[in-house]
Design the sequence.
């Protein structure tokens, strides 16, 4: 059980380090080349309502067609 917790902690720490490096590099490199992770996250959530529904319906239709 402790090994499992240590594995999760290592994964979370690795993600945090990666995000911190990305944020640091984004502050040095120009925005169009490497936007900060916060901008990417906001753009992702802003685009979900616009396009996710359409893509979900198309994917669902493909699944139904493949079954039939």
Sequence:
């Amino acid at each position: 059980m402790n090994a499992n917790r240590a594995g999760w902690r290592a994964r979370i720490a690795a993600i945090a380090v990666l995000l911190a490096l990305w944020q640091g590099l984004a502050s040095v490199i120009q925005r169009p080349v490497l936007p900060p992770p916060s901008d990417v996250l906001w753009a992702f959530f802003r685009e979900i309502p616009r396009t996710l529904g359409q893509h979900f319906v198309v994917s669902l239709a493909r699944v139904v067609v493949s079954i039939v």
About this structure: The longest helix spans residues 37-67.
